[in-house]
Known about the structure:
1050 residues, mainly beta, Jelly Rolls, 12-stranded antiparallel β-sheet, LamG-like, signal, carbohydrate binding, Concanavalin A-like lectin/glucanase superfamily protein
Amino acid sequence: MLAHPDGSLSWSQSLRPVRVRQGDSWRGVDLTLARRADGVVAPVAAPVDLRLSGGGTSSPLVVLGRDGREIGLGWAGALPEPVLSGPTATYPNVLPDVDLVVTVDVTGFSQVLVVKSREAAKNPAIRSLVFPVTTRNSTLGTEPGEGRGQLRNMPTTTRAAGEPDGLVVRDAEGRTVFSGDATRMWDSTGPEGGRAAGPSDANREAVMGLAVSERSVTVTPDAALLDSPGTTYPVYVDPEFWHGGKNHHVVVQDGQQAGTLNYDRTSFPLNDLKSGYHLENGAFRSRAFVEMNTDFVRGRKIHGAVLRANVIHSNSCAGAIPTVVGLTSPIDPHISWNRQPVWQYDMGSSNVTNNQSYCPSNGWAEFDATRAAADSAQQGWTNVTLGLRGDEGRVDGWRRFGFDLVLVIRYNSYPHQPSQLLTRVDSLNVGCVTGAARPYSSDARPRLSAFFGDDDGSLLNAKFEWTELSTGATGHTGAGEFPPRTVRDVEVPAGAMRDGGIYSWRVQAGDGELLSPWSGTCEVAIDTTKPGLPSVTPVQVPQYEGLPATLTLGANGTPDVVRYVYTTDAVDPTPIGSPSVNANGLGGDATIRVTAQQGETTVRVRSVDRANNPGEIFEFKFKARDKASVVSEWRLDRALDDAAAQRRPLSYAGTGAAAWTPGYVGDALAMNPATRDHAVTAQPAVDTGQSFAVSAWVKLSRGDGWYTVASQEGSRVGSFFLQYRPDTGRWTFRAPLSDVDGADSDAVPSTGPALLNTWTHLAGVYDEPAKKLRLYVNGVLQGETPHTGWNAGGPFLLGAAKWSGARVDFFPGAIDNVQVWNRVVFASEAAAMNNIAVPRAAYALNEGTGTTAKDSVTGGSATLRGDVGWSTSDYRTAKLSGHPSGWISGPRPDIRAGQSYTVSAWVRANALDASARTAVSFGDPKFSPFLLGYHPGQQRWELFSVNAAGTASWSAVSIATAAPNTWVHLTGVYDAVAREIRLYVNGQLSNKQTGVEPWGGGADGLSIGAGQWNSQPTGRWNGLLDDVRVYAGVVDEPAIRDFADPTLRS
Length: 1050
């Protein structure tokens, strides 16, 4: 392939293969025979698979293969090691004084048995030659072959007229794969005697008998030629096979060869293409025909074509007569001088000469073949047949051409008809449609796009054309200079299309010379008018928050409304991304269900028309009365009772007995998979086809399997699973799509890994109106996913799941305080459940004597260290001097690392100087995770927080300046859900800081009157401390005010 500056290409095709693909590269044909490592002899690079015997009996004499089909000829007996010379392998003395010569060609092979003496010809094996045959994916048969009924230089023939003299190998569909001949023999009479390539004019030639069976080819040499006193030895016996390929040729000759069939023959004397007048092989006139495949240029624009032919011999030099090339009818295996193709018309001619004795040259001639190439491209022919014809009355026009001729066609391909037409409407690509289904665009400048192709890789341009259906007015715009095999789009120019217009459009591609066919026609309607306000009519408003309301949305007189978009989360609805419901017809109504939110619910609604124009927002507000309480609540404080009004108790259903362990609040149900520990209700806890929620405190003891906290049984599977999954190591709220074995599921995973042996709060929510699953872990929303629920009518399961009809996934660890609702649970509620205030330590510090202080929550005690003592000046309190050795140390309260806490104390500082003072903290080898006390730089009270890595800190300081010798109540809160710290002074919120990262550490326990910073003790308190309290979770503000009420101090 050759590219030209004008964008056209030249495509070349040889009559016979000239290159071979080996691996990922191409190389020239090389028929030199060589021995392979496996002992087989093969050409270096051949277009067909040719394998010759390396001697012995292990492989056939020669195998010819292509595309998985093979024909092999063997030899009856062991073969000697061949002598290799270029493309020829000679097997000497396969019979006494008889050589076997195999010559390979680009399309096949010839096999000549050389009978070197009259004595050798008397061998009975010569009189009937049997060649074993092997085939693969093919069958061997006979057909008319060369048709050599006229025997040259022989008075008689031993062949009967009409006998088949050709060989053919066909595939399973009956198509010819290989052709062959096994009927020629000749002697060495004449000046060119001794040639193994083929007979000359002087040779005595005969045909042989042929018989074919499934496993052999039997050739019977002509006894008259073998026994004739006039026969000159050696005598040559020649069976051969060849593969025709895509292109074919034939030479036809008159005289003695007028009936000879030479289709695709390449062996001597037909080892070239002959044209003109010259005595050869008993013939005077010769013509050559070549069939060239032109399917590649079908439908292309032809700029020109030449047939390049190598003149290997011309009879004359000066005064030579040109050879003409013309188009003929097709050739086939039965073409002869007596049955020639029809000559259609002449084209080019050439008078190139090449006579090695008198006027040697490179011999290459060019014949104009443009007309034939153009006709072939226009009419869709798969090939053309070109004839070479010289002057047939004078030898000055005689030429022989090599088989290496080439047809070169210069062409340009028409761009492909544009396809994949799309109209881009409001960020959506709409396929090519017409009529009532046409898209409506809210923009009078829609984008039109199509896919463009061109076989030549030429740069393309495009013309987009549109017509208004009602007026016939047209317009167009273009896109140019872009590569093929790409999508190109254009924006309709401003003012070209009008509101209310309906347009058809199409597109055509060009390459600067040729144009593609027009594409099909698409349509688009322009509608830039927005719909009016919708109407909202309540059908049912729920009594409780979290339950669904039913509303009817109406078009309010706008005729082309197709759908409505709405929101309930204070965000304006948009045509793309917001919940949407289709109208029950053009301009019709729609019914929606929305979940009643906390407080007042505002439903924002917009009408959307066919062009996706959104109307103005209409707000509809309603308010549910209150929150519906839980429908089931199992506190699991050493009992399986249901504390909710419906009273659905659990029953232990394992193989052991119910066991208890300390819970997050009170006690918890201990779960052991070994005894299949789980509990069930007698009836369903909730309709899982409607909105519902389930929550629990869980402590997972291992992560090596699927473990389920809660579920509700269907017939074969549960309708939901609040569970741990081992492949991700995360919590998940999973809901099968249906009640069948192996059902697919929708699932919401946690954003982080599940923590083992750590109390974790889980809440799974199904919002039926929104068709969403949500998962909360420790009060924080992990995500949501679409889901359509179904009702599982079986019992509620705690600590197990139903899958494929069996209970599985028994939970290891502990479960506490399980709650179920028949409504949506909101984010604030999930946060509140996680932040429930649970007392973990309380030191009144009113002992007055001794070196310990009692924890009224756990019954444990803290130790007074250094010079810490007691005071009774105002209240009975602890007294600290600020000395580095003086502080109170207690066990670490049960607060989950990184989770919410509340810590408080009454404090009185003797002096507030340049030193930091800490009232309460957690001890740690490096950094206290929090410090509640005094900030000297700002001279204010402070809650100071450090992240788990010790790389960032946050501070909430009081508004008012701290005063010494005055009792002050301090409360510090870390809200893990809100990610903020809050400081309360005397029961009132004084300051807060947001964006606070989770804390960690605190392994050294509770520190009263001291802190730790950068691995050093810090902030020793100088003054009095009283009533220290620590809570897991967030204590609410009324309780904090009670803590700070001096009238309630003891």
